[in-house]
Each structure stands twice: as C-alpha cells, then as structure tokens.
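Internal QA ticket QA-208
Title: Verify multi-chain structure generation after dependency bump
Assignee: T.L.

Test input:
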Amino acid sequence: MNESAKEAQLGYPTQLIGERDSYESATRQIGSIVLDQKQPRSWLIGFTIAFIGVMLLMVAISYLFFKGVGIWGINIPIAWGFAIVNFVWWIGIGHAGTLISAFLLLMHQKWRNSINRFAEAMTIFAVACAGLFPLLHLGRPWVFYWLLPYPDTMGLWPQFRSPLVWDVFAVSTYFTVSLIFWYAGLIPDFATLRDRAEKRWKQIVFGVLSLGWRGSARHWARYESAYVLLAGLATPLVVSVHSVVSLDFSVGIVPGWHSTIFPPYFVAGAIYSGFAMVLTLMIPVRRIYHLENMITDRHINNMANVMFATGWMVAYGYIMEAFMSWFSGNRYDAFMMSNRFAGPYAHTFWVLILCNILVPQALWSRRVRDNHVVLWLISIVINIGMWLERYVIVIVSLHRDFVPSAWSMYGGTKWDYAMLLGSMGLFVALIYLFVRFLPMISIAEVRTLISEREEGTL
Amino acid sequence: MKTETPRIFGIVAEFHDHMALLNAARKAHASGYRKLDAYTPFPIEGLAYEIGFRKNRVALCCLLGGLTGGIGGYFMQWYALAIDYPLNVGGRPFHSAPSFIPITFELTVLCAALATVIGMLALNGLPRPHHPIFSARNFARATTDKFFLAIEASDKNFNARKTAQFLRECGATNVSEVNDEG
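Actual output:
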C-alpha cells in the first residue's frame, strides 16, 4: 500500500522518510549542510540579529555586576521577579527535547528518529539559558559554588533539606545527562563527517570528535545498550527536574504556591511549552533547509498532537487550582484566586488563558495542524502563554500574600526585559551555530529508518 | 630483525547490503572463524550475536554507577546534616530521610549516566585515533552505505588465500588484504 492510500485510510500523515531516500542520498543531504553547502542568506541575517541579542545580554549582565540586582524590578515581597519566571520558562522548554529523545525511544516511536537531535540541542541551549537566571539572581554570583558540597574552610555544608539546593542538583544533573546523551548520539555521525570531509582540518576536527569510531558490530552492540540505558535514566530524570522546580514553590506556604498539584502540573506545562518551542524552531528550519523528506508532515502532526494533549493537562491543572482554592475553605487561597481573576494583574491571567487554552483549541482541526504557518503562529502564542503562566504564578502570588501592609506591586524594568530578550538572542544564536556546524538530524538513525523501509518493517 | 613483508591485519570483505553481511558473518562463525568483526554504518540487529559477541557489560557499568551515586549521595547528606554539622531547622529531625530523597535520586541518575557512557567507551577501546581497518579499500564508505566483514590474521584458521576465497564465496563484492602498519 502506498503512502497516500494509507494516509487516506488512517486520516493522518503516515510518511516517516522519503520514498526515494537511500543511505547515500540521506547522508549527503544532512552531511552537506555541515560540510560544504553554502548557507542560505537567511542564516547570516538571522544569526546577526540573534548575535545582537547576545550582545544585549552581555551589556545587561555587565551592568548587573556593576550595580547589583537593584537594577531589576524586584522588591520585597516580590523578590523573585523576572529572573525566576525566565528560569522556569527556559527549563520547561528544554523538557520536550528529552521527552522526544528518551521517552519516545523507550516507547519505540520511530517518528522520533529524525527530530531527536534537533530537540536535544534545543534542550541543552534552553537549560544553559535557564541556568543563567538563578545564578545572576543570587546577588553575589561569584560565590555560586557555595551551593555545592565541597570541603570548604568554613566547615559548612549546603542545606540539603532545602528545595533550592535540590534544584541545583536537579538542574546540573539534567544539563550533564542531556549533554552526554546528545554527544553519545553524535559520535557515529562525527565519524560519517570525518569520512566525508575533504579538507584536512575538518577531517582532524571530526576525527577527534568521533573518538575514532569505526562502526564495529561489537561497538554498536555496546553503544545501543548504553543509549537505551541513558534513555531509561533520562526519562525519570526529566520528570524529576520540573517536579523539583515546582517544589521550590509548593514547599513554601505562600497562597497560590502551596499546592500538591504543582509537580505534575509543572511537568505537563514544561512538555507543553517545549513542544511549542520545537515547532517554532523546526517549521522554519525544515522549510529553509528543504528537509521535508525527513521531517515529514507526520512529524509535525504528531508534535502538534502531543502539544495539544499536554495543553489539556495544563488546563486541568488550572481548573484544579481554582477548584481547590474554593474547596479547601482557606480564605487566603480563596483571596489569591479572586485576586488572580480580578485583581490588578487580571489582564495577565486572562491573556494567559487566551494563549494557553482558548487559541490552541484550533488544533482540533486537522486543517489547522496541516497548515504549518497557522501551526507556527499557534506555537508562538503558546510560548507567550507559558511565560505569562509563570509570571502569574511567581508575581501574582507574591504581591498580595497574608498581611495587606506587606502588599506591593511589581513591574519589570528595562534591564529585566534586556535580560529576557538577551537570553532569547543567546538561545537563537546557539541554534544557528548548531544547524551550521553539527548534523541537525541523526544520520545513523535515518539510515536505520531507510533499512527498515527497504525491508518493509517501518 | 625486520621482516621484509608487512604484517597482515586481516582480510576485509565489502558487502552491498546488511542482509548479505549478516549471512556472511553467520557462515564465517560457523566455519570456525572467531577473530572477526563487522563494520556497518548503522546498528544491525543480531549482527554482534552472529560474530559471537554475547556479553557487553554496559548495563553492569550503569548499575555500579547508579549504586555508587545513590548510596554515596545519601551518605553525604546524612553525614553532613546529622553528624558533621547538625542544624535544627524548624524542629525537623537531623536525619530527615524524605528531604534527602531528591538529591539521592539526582546523584543516582548522574553517576549511572556517566558510568554508562564512560563504560561504553572504555569497553569499546575508544577513543582510539587509528586502527588498521581504516586503511581497507573503500572503508570510508563504512560510515555511509557499505558493510564490511573483517577476518583477522590472528585467527587460528586464518590463511590469506583460503580466507579471501571463502569471503568471495559468501558474496562479497570486494575483498582486500589489509596490512597492520602499527
């Protein structure tokens, strides 16, 4: 049965890999982007804009070091501000990458094979951006290592009962494991690039990076064991990371934070925003680099479906939060919720509902999911919505807690916005460098798909 | 004591597709060849088994790493907060096990993952900058679209002429002798 007949029967796009792709053509197509293809003009323009963002970040950080965190809009009681909003937002974005590469591998979902490399890169860059914010928010970032257990002359230890210390361990473990998972996946592809490179220096660089990989059957056997084990480790890890992030809030007694639904609700939100970001990046990249034969309509459709499903989990979280603040009979919780609906930040809350719940309902329609321009716009709306969600959680909860005399208002300063824009610039610049210098699709795994297509087992 | 002829690494045969390679590997192992290895551009199910490779021990590395991280992580927290620097925070017990779980879990995963990757590379003998197989004819294609089987000279059944003949009979498209320059 050919693909179009299958598609008509099942009602969704089914193709995973182009019908004419061979080992050689797929290797050439992906490898040549790195090795010799002249980059499209949009690369230079886009990278320049992103690089301006990086410079903005540098300026913002330098001025922060010069003046201190007073340049931000934070105050007491709203001590967390943009830094923590941005941290939670970025780290959530990272989660889709691990979900795609690890969880879908364990589930034998073959549609992960041509998108996992890109999604993992996105994870690492997003976690790198996330890590900046709590460090800079420390106020004295040069003593950040006090958070780590090391034999110091003060005879002190970190407070291991504190969720903030759990967070240090969770995020640094997440970054390290994501990085080695990504690198392990790249080793065979580095060997391919080494063997295809024509310039001597490229052969040496890729040769060193490939660690001398030669594709031996024994090596592949150990490699595949290691890869599955890493996936098995990364899957609970990714769930734990955003759970620990949510415990930063829910272990505290602030109304709007002190809630048992936070860990699952944060994890769902993380995957929701992560898939939105994967779509935001992948729809243009696939068009610009003509990768429609490998990142097919089926991939895009599947990602849209996962995004939509996790969006409903997030909606359930919102409903349960509202329900519990009524059902618990706790007057502070009830006030927090009415303040969220109708207080001074009500517009933020309602825009968040619009972005995260109402607009994505368009995804019920197959025509919307197949229209990649509309899907791309929806994914951006969800990214904005998820940032606003964290804004509502952090700021609206803090600004009016128990005693009205301690209430205050909050707004980001220009330096807050410079940090946020700058971190986006850093993220996009890293993505640009990645698509230019590393194979953005796993070549070895695409070859596996092709061999399965030949055997008819795909 | 220099020998005139270079030492032979082995005979290397090239195949067009992975099914031919699998069949050849099976036949070679059945004919008594033991020092053999196959080289492929992507992992092929069952190939390592056909060349007689059974235990890869990567899972053991993972387990040992995980146990080290888990036990070590919990011990560190217990020692720090119950023995070395007991600090009363809100009346909680010094040894507050539930609060120690998140870091214990993270360190378990961290050490297990590092041990898995380092163990995999170490058992594979990587990084290794050079290997005689790289000088086999057309071997650069082994990371793109060609499949290779090598029978090494150290095998007790090895005979340059007979082994080459055997590989040709297995359906190899290209059979060459590879020298060990190292």
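Spot checks passed. Chain B touches chain A through 61 residues (CB under 8 Å).
Status: verified.
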